[in-house]
Write a structure and sequence with these properties.
The complex is a heterotrimer of chains A (70), B (456) and C (419).
Chain A: H1 3-19, E1 22-30, E2 33-40, E3 46-51, H2 54-69
Antiparallel strand pairs in A: 1-2, 2-3
Chain B: H1 14-17, H2 27-36, H3 44-48, H4 55-64, H5 67-77, H6 81-87, H7 94-97, H8 109-122, E1 137-141, H9 145-157, E2 160-164, H10 173-177, H11 185-196, E3 201-203, H12 214-220, E4 223-226, E5 246-248, H13 249-256, E6 269-273, H14 277-288, E7 293-297, H15 309-317, E8 321-323, E9 326-333, E10 339-352, E11 358-362, E12 368-371, E13 374-377, H16 385-390, E14 395-396, E15 399-400, E16 414-416, H17 431-455
Parallel strand pairs in B: 1-2, 1-4, 2-3, 4-16, 5-13, 6-7, 6-13, 7-8
Antiparallel strand pairs in B: 9-10, 10-11, 10-12, 14-15
Chain C: E1 6-8, E2 11-13, E3 17-19, H1 28-37, E4 41-47, E5 58-63, E6 66-73, H2 82-95, E7 100-105, H3 111-123, E8 128-132, H4 146-149, H5 152-165, E9 170-173, H6 181-190, E10 195-198, E11 202-204, E12 207-208, E13 215-216, E14 226-229, H7 234-245, E15 254-257, H8 263-271, E16 274-279, H9 281-286, H10 291-304, E17 333-337, H11 347-355, E18 360-364, E19 370-374, H12 384-388, E20 395-399, H13 408-417
Parallel strand pairs in C: 3-4, 3-16, 4-7, 7-8, 8-9, 9-10, 10-15, 15-16
Antiparallel strand pairs in C: 1-2, 5-6, 6-14, 11-14, 12-13, 17-20, 18-19
Classes of the chains: A alpha+beta (70), B alpha/beta (456), C alpha/beta (419).
Catalytic activity (chain C): 5,6-dihydrouracil + NAD(+) = uracil + NADH + H(+); (S)-dihydroorotate + fumarate = orotate + succinate; 5,6-dihydrothymine + NAD(+) = thymine + NADH + H(+)
Function (chain C): Involved in pyrimidine base degradation. Catalyzes physiologically the reduction of uracil to 5,6-dihydrouracil (DHU) by using NADH as a specific cosubstrate. It also catalyzes the reverse reaction and the reduction of thymine to 5,6-dihydrothymine (DHT).
Protein name (chain C): Dihydrothymine dehydrogenase
Chain lengths: 70, 456, 419
């Protein structure tokens, strides 16, 4: 899978959670990439995505900034 | 302002006229030109070279000062690469395909190739080694470009190779057939030497079919490479052909390379029959031997002429006159049996024939006579029919039938390459093509020998 | 005709092109020839205790047949007594009163030494002083030049001593042989410098002879490091000028030096904050006459931009120079190949394939013709293909739509706040 396809796959996972009503509330970044933690306000469930591609790491952080400012 | 141009042709110093016309690149020119090369990836020039020389690599090596490596890159792909640097129609091959044709001007690949190989010649480099002996033997009939190329590759594979050369020296066309002012003999001799250094035995003055029989060769060697080229110029089949002063262009050019230039043409009028590259050579050699007027007579027009454009230009600069649509009818002799004139007839072109060329026909009543002192015949070359038949090979009007890839003939142990394969619609009669065929024939023989070896 | 005159910390000259303190400004004869040719100013070859030079002093680096891509010297400051130089400065200034003559100075780091030379030099009427804290070879071994220029406290102290005595503007010339030039620039400002100039030459060994194994250049079989300059150092110099120009604590004018070879280079330095430029290698390569095109080219450039004075250009690009952390992570450009212009050398393909992101495909069209195509989704917009492309206009980097701008600093601030 090309890097672009990997990005699209990761972006889709992020978008999926967002559409289900999840919000990003925290992210840990280390040698293996980013571990982005999502929280569903209504149900109180947490989910973590391991985001590896550079473009997806840019993407989730922009979403995160957007969520914070709104 | 008056500029004094260097005289192109000297009427007193004929030897100077036969010195190499192009002086080649200086170090600085070579450095600048080599640095201009883009070093293309998957370069079109490599594909355009019949021998597939890795041109960007050899040019890069000139730029980096690795001239030995550059010469090796050239000569490994083309065993007569020093000659080809001078005689290849580069505008139609490597230089014609250079991507810079689409932006600035193409890299002068031929001159760079000459620069690198000249360096190797001047520095007396031996570029290759013979392979570990494989116990097989091969006879190469003809020591011209195709034969030398096959011999060298076979020697590198470990074959014990003997070249049978009819002439006094090996090199074939490069030694005898290409005019000195384009290709000095010393270049051809160096290429022959490079092959000899791989323990290749060259038997000169030894003509296969005359001095050694076909059966003997077939009996004595595991493989035979038939690279005998072509024979003499055919007769015009007109009256007066036997007169003194009628020459075979091939022999005429060869005589200018014998070491002693004839003074017999000084101030004379020469007519050359034909308009191929050999005709041009006959004409320019005549000019350089001091002839006062040289005309090329061709029965078709400039469009059908087979000479390369640069050869045509060169001849025009030498002052050669071209008489298109002019065919010879008879050669007129004087009381001493010496050529005195040539009767010609005007021709007109008809519709294109099968080969796409328009066939000429005489214009009735248009005969006229040109006063000339010599006539040079350059209307193609005949085939080595007796030799081909002595080997019992299939052929078509003297053009040996061979596999397009392996060059194997109807006799599995005989491979043919070079001009002996050249005929109507059978590839280009270029030195570089002959070299490539020699190489490929050698590869095919090596492959066959290996398979035969493992089968035992 | 635009106004090309400059006023650099009070030093006025008819145009921004000065000759740097170096071999071209060794004598009155040379500086007068330079002014005749059109140079606006000259920084005189560094004055100090006359030195001794060696023979074999320069070397240059050629790149792919192009001569003098970089240049190096092991020549020291003036080897002539001060009074001889001062007499020629006086005569030159008298003949060319409107051209700027700046005296470059280098003495031991002692207060009385600086006071003495400043006084004697100013007496003959120079327009300004330039303190040579940059020469990296020879003099540095004796504690001067870059040896003192690399120690911020010495820069500050010596500048201060000079300012105690000087009546004319003082420029401090900085060495690039230091990790962060803004530190020494700030030291100069703290010492009272009216302006700073940069860069002096960079420590360098030009080469080794493959046959003799001698250094290049060598002096009787031995070599020592020299100072590197010429076109190859321009990017290094430009960065140092820009770093100083955008630093709010370095508030003095900058005289830009380093590989400036033509008016375009000069404009770049001026846009990045230089109030004037100094040139040496290009003049050493081609002679003083190069200034004619520099002046004309600059003039035409200003006219074409409808700018009436070169001073209006100063620092116009400085706000565009920042830290990496302030760059937009979402800005997205991709390569586009114009197949009508492309000559199919395939250099972009192999460069991308071997050394970047493998996104340029070699394709054979239906008509049998080869062409190159960028897979835009995999292109990271690195510019490599456009850099190696030999044909103007064959590769264009095209802006793509992207998300709202987000810098690294903004991103990290947001992520860290969630901890």
């Amino acid at each position: 899978m090309s890097e672009h396809e990997q990005y699209l796959a990761e972006k889709e996972k992020i978008d999926q959670l967002l559409s289900e009503g999840y919000n990003i509330y925290h992210a840990v970044e280390n040698l293996d990439g980013a571990f982005v933690e999502f929280f569903h306000l209504k149900s109180g469930t947490k989910k973590t995505l391991h985001i590896r591609t550079a473009n997806a790491r840019k993407y989730f952080s922009s979403i995160f900034i957007q969520q914070k400012s709104s | 302002m008056v500029t004094i141009k260097t005289q192109r042709i000297s009427i007193t110093d004929l030897e100077r006229n036969f010195e190499e016309a192009d002086r080649g690149f200086t170090n600085q020119e070579a450095l600048e030109e080599s640095n201009r090369c883009l070093f293309c990836y998957d370069a079109p020039c490599i594909k355009a070279c019949p021998t597939g020389i890795d041109i960007p690599s050899f040019i890069k090596k000139i730029a980096s000062g690795n001239l030995l490596g550059s010469a090796k890159t050239i000569m490994s792909s083309n065993p007569v690469g020093a000659s080809c640097a001078r005689v290849c129609p580069t505008e139609e091959l490597c230089e014609g395909s250079c991507v810079l044709n689409h932006s600035t001007s193409p890299i002068q690949i031929g001159k760079l190739q000459r620069y690198a190989t000249d360096w190797a010649i001047k520095n007396e480099q031996t570029l290759f080694k013979a392979g570990t002996p494989n116990g097989k033997t091969a006879a190469v009939i003809g020591g011209g470009p195709a034969g030398l190329s096959a011999a060298r590759e076979l020697a590198r594979f470990g074959f014990r190779v003997t070249i049978y050369e009819a002439a006094e020296k090996a090199g074939g066309l490069n030694t005898y057939g290409i005019v000195s002012f384009r290709l000095p003999q010393s270049i051809s001799f160096w290429e022959v030497e490079q092959v000899q250094k791989l323990n290749v035995r060259i038997l000169t003055n030894t003509m296969a079919g005359r001095d050694v029989s076909a059966e003997e060769l077939l009996h004595s060697y595991d493989y035979i490479v038939l690279a005998a080229g072509m024979a003499h110029v055919p007769d015009l089949r007109i009256e007066g052909e036997e007169l003194k002063g009628v020459y075979d262009a091939i022999e005429f050019v060869k005589a200018t390379k014998s070491g002693k230039l004839s003074r017999d043409f000084a101030g004379k009028r020469v007519a050359v029959i034909g308009a191929g590259n050999t005709a041009i050579d006959g004409a320019t050699c005549s000019v350089r031997l001091g002839a006062e007027n040289v005309k090329i007579l061709y029965r078709r027009s400039v469009e059908e002429m087979t000479a390369y454009d640069f050869e045509y230009e060169f001849a025009k600069q030498d002052g050669v006159e071209f008489r298109w649509l002019t065919a010879p009818k008879r050669i007129i002799g004087d009381a001493e049996g010496q050529v005195a004139g040539i009767e010609c007839v005007q021709m007109a072109l008809g519709d294109p024939g099968e080969d796409g060329r328009r066939s000429p026909a005489e214009v009735e009543g248009s005969e006229f006579t040109l006063p000339v002192d010599a006539v040079i015949k350059a209307i193609g070359q005949t085939r080595h029919l007796p030799l081909i038949e002595a080997f019992g090979l299939q052929h078509e009007y003297g053009v040996v039938t061979a596999d397009k890839e392996t060059f194997q003939t109807s006799n599995p142990k005989i491979f043919a390459c070079g001009d002996i394969l050249f005929g109507k619609g059978k590839g280009d009669a270029m030195v570089v093509t002959a070299a490539q065929q020699g190489k490929l024939a050698a590869y095919a023989i090596h492959k066959q020998a290996q398979t035969a070896g493992t089968a035992k | 005709m635009a106004d090309l005159s400059i006023n650099l910390a009070g030093i006025k000259s008819p145009n921004p092109f000065w000759l740097a303190s170096a071999p071209p400004t060794n004598s009155g004869y040379q500086v007068q020839r330079a002014f005749e040719a059109g140079w606006g100013g000259a920084v005189w070859k560094t004055l100090g205790d006359p030195i001794l030079n060696v023979s074999s002093r320069f070397a240059a680096i050629n790149f792919n047949g192009q001569r003098v891509a970089g240049f190096n010297n092991i020549e020291l400051i003036t080897d002539r007594p001060l009074d001889v130089n001062l007499k020629e400065i006086y005569e030159t200034k008298k003949r060319f009163p409107n051209h700027a003559i700046i005296a470059s100075l280098m003495v031991e780091p002692k207060q009385e030494k600086w006071h003495e030379i400043v006084k004697r030099v100013e007496d003959v009427g120079v327009d300004g002083l330039e303190l040579n804290f940059g020469c990296p070879h020879g003099m540095a071994e004796r504690g001067m030049g870059s040896a003192s220029g690399q120690v911020p406290s010495l820069v500050e102290k010596q500048t201060y001593w000079v300012k105690e005595a000087a009546k004319t503007p003082v420029i401090v010339k900085l060495t690039p042989n230091i990790t962060d030039i803004t530190v020494t620039a700030e030291a100069a400002v703290n010492g009272g410098a009216d302006a700073i100039s940069m860069i002096n030459t960079i420590n360098s060994l030009m080469g080794v002879d493959l046959d003799t194994w001698n250094t290049i250049p060598h002096v009787a079989g031995k070599g020592a490091h020299g100072g590197y300059c010429g076109p190859a150092v321009k990017p290094i110099a430009l960065n140092m000028v820009a770093e100083c120009a955008r630093n709010p604590r370095i508030s003095v004018p900058i005289s830009g030096i380093g590989g400036i070879s033509n008016w375009q280079d000069a404009v770049e330095f001026i846009l990045m904050g230089a109030a004037g430029v100094q040139v040496c290698t290009a003049a050493m390569h081609h002679g003083f006459r190069i200034v004619e095109d520099m002046i004309e080219g600059l003039d035409h450039y200003l006219d074409s931009k409808n700018i009436s004075a070169v001073s209006e250009l100063i620092g116009k690009s400085v706000p565009r120079y920042s830290d990496w952390g302030n760059l937009d992570l979402h800005y997205n450009i991709t390569a586009q190949i114009n197949t009508d212009v492309c000559i199919n050398c395939n250099k972009c393909h192999i460069a991308c394939e071997d050394t970047s992101h493998q996104c340029i495909d070699m394709i054979k069209g239906d008509n049998g013709r080869s062409y190159l195509k960028v897979r835009e989704e995999d292109c990271v917009g690195c510019n490599l293909c456009a850099i190696v492309c030999p044909v103007e206009g064959a590769i264009t980097m095209v802006e793509q739509t992207s998300m709202q701008p987000m810098t690294w600093n903004e991103r990290q601030a947001a992520l860290n706040s969630s901890k």
